[in-house]
Amino acid sequence: MSAQVPWYDAYPKPSTTTPPTISRETLLAWIKEGRTPGQDFLVVDLRRTDHTGGFLRGSVNLPIESLYPALPTLHAMCKSAGIKTVIWYCVTSRGRGNRAAAWFGDYLREQNETDIESVSLLEGILGWALAGDEYTEHIDEFVPEAWKSSDAAKHTGQLSSCN
């Protein structure tokens, strides 16, 4: 029986496994200042087809498996909308969030794009969901039970697939 090749091996390796990050505290401060997702910044949920446990208000769902070929389109959309920061997240800040931030960051550098930055949400949505009411009030379709377990990522069914 042959070993299955991971989906991401079809694409170039990102230049880094530690791209720039944004803390949940900073993102929450932006929201409280009145910055608007989709106008001032873009938040991208990289989970596949679900939003288990909820999703950050104003985020778009772009499963990472379809991301790499869409980078030029995403860049064009951000540029025409004047979006300066793209924030990527999965359940944790490992895997998908870092991979997406690095891929888009690499693409931006290849285009000599200096007006847009690509960052990963530090600690992902799991960190956000466990940080208290001040944060969870910004999660749409929030399901507290999905995050309460000490092994919350297991309940979301996402941690093992966050590559």
UniProtKB/TrEMBL annotation:
GO terms for cellular component: cytoplasm; nucleus. Residues 37-137 form the Rhodanese domain. It comes from the Eukaryota. GO terms for molecular function: protein tyrosine phosphatase activity. PROSITE patterns: RHODANESE_3 (PS50206). PANTHER family: M-PHASE INDUCER PHOSPHATASE DUAL SPECIFICITY PHOSPHATASE CDC25, REDUCTASE (ARC2), PUTATIVE (AFU_ORTHOLOGUE AFUA_6G13400)-RELATED. This is Rhodanese domain-containing protein. It comes from Penicillium hordei.
